[in-house]
Amino acid sequence: MKSVVVTDAARGIGALVADALARMSLAVGSLSQRPSESHTQEAAAWLDLFTELEPDAVFVSHLRVRGSGLSRAAVQTAEAAFAAAARCPSLEKVVVLSSGQVYGARDDLPTFVPEHIAPDRDAPTSAGLLEVEAAASAFARVRPDTVVTILRPTEVLGPYPHGLLADHIVSSGSFVTASAGFDPQVQFATDHDVAVAALLAIFEDRPGVYNIAPADALRLSSAIRVAAKFRVGVNRAVTRVAGAVLRTEPWSGELSSLMRFGRCLDATRSVEGGFAPLTASADAIRGWRAAQEDSNGVGEPAGPDGRGTPTSGVGSRGADGPLETERATDDE
Predict the structure, then answer these.
(1) How far is it, in rounded angstroms, from Cα 189 to Cα 102?
(2) CA 278, 282, 288, 289 torsion: positive or negative?
(3) How confident is the model at residue 257 (pLDDT cuts 50, 70, 90)?
(4) Is 245 within the bounds of a domain?
(5) Which residues contact 311 (CB under 8 A, 6 or more apart)?
(6) Quick count: other Cβ atoms within 10 Å of Cβ 41?
(7) pLDDT grade, residue 74 (50/70/90)?
(8) Is 16 part of a structural domain of the chain?
(9) For residues 10 and 30, is the Cβ–Cβ distance under 8 A?
């Protein structure tokens, strides 16, 4: 493997992957998001990049998934990259970062959700993610000679949290509002773990959809306590008032469901594929907390350039130290 395209190499998980690939002496190509461009202009820019770099793989990443899901700009970027990738004869691998949020949060979901459970197409945050996954499936039909991997991580902690619940805990101050009378099971992974999973998929053949999650889970109250914050149980009817008093955003309907029912992903298939994160949920929270204490800013990137680089995020602060790339290097 000589070169890889990363659709968002500036921040978050995309930056971790791009930096790791660069340390392996691979050429890494990317374009910054330019929302002012038309879809045609952006597609042409990505085609030029693919033509010039002739990549062996592409990692379709994005900054984060928040209450409104993926931005239209992020979806447009992914679609433009897929269109360019379809015309790139050198391409062998496509790895797509999606999210476990596609399953929604409902009381009829199993305790640990496996990959075969149908996505919740009515969940507000699922729309953009499912558009990207649909584009990946369409690409696979056009280019059956490539290996397409879709990663669905659980709630991810880092300088740029990936997931509704992770974002709620990170963006809250010392007090985290939660649904009174409910204490669901939840999971958390580190951006380090997700980046390692992406690297594995880039260097090895792992076709299909994989949940990326630790094997364990913990109660929401415990997660908030490990994050060194205080849980404030509120009734749904007074959520807006509590949000104003505690200076947090009012819950969306989907976040409210997460507060009541939780969502944990079944990691069985990812374990078999070698994807399972090594960090337990509680340790993921501790690593994020330690990073924030070092950076003196809850939920803000520590680097002076505003990037979630491996030297500023949870990815560099796990028990195993800096982002490990030996597994991917050995399997090249």
Answers:
(1) 17
(2) negative
(3) confident
(4) yes
(5) 303
(6) 12
(7) confident
(8) yes
(9) yes
Q: What would the pLDDT profile of 206-234 be if each residue is shown by its tens digit?
A: 999 999 999 999 999 999 999 999 998 88
The answer to whether 55 and 5 are in contact (CB under 8 A) is yes
Residue whose tokens read 């053949």: 205
Among 100-114, 189-203, 240-254, 278-292, the least confident range: 240-254
**Token pair listed for 211:** 């949940």
Structural domains counted in the chain: 1
Hunting for tokens 């399997």 — which residue is that?
331
What is the identity of the amino acid at 191?
D
CATH of the domain at 268: 3.40.50.720
CA distance linking residue 1 with residue 324, whole number of Å: 18
Find tokens 């070169």 and name the residue.
3
Alpha-carbon distance 297 to 102, whole Å? 30
**pLDDT value, residue 160:** 84
> Does any domain span residue 139?
yes
User: What sign has the CA pseudo-torsion 274, 202, 114, 99?
Assistant: positive
The HSE-up count of residue 285 (CA atoms within 13 Å, CB side) is 24
- Residue 219 forms beta bridges with which residues? 185
Q: Is it the case that residue 60 has pLDDT exceeding 80?
A: yes
**What is the extent of the structural domain holding 264?**
3-301
And the tokens for 182? 């409910």
> What CA–CA distance (Å, rounded) separates 188 from 243?
23
**Residue 263 pairs with which residues in a beta bridge?**
186
Angle at which helices 12-23 and 191-203 pack, to 10 degrees? 50
What's the pLDDT at 239?
59
Q: Note the Cα 284 to chain centre separation in Å.
A: 14
pLDDT tens-digit profile of 288-330?
A: 999 888 775 444 443 323 333 333 233 332 323 333 333 233 3
Find the helix packing angle between 72-85 and 126-142, rounded to 10°.
10
In a domain, 323, yes or no: no
Structure tokens at 145: 């000679």
Element containing residue 93 per DSSP (H, E): strand 93-97
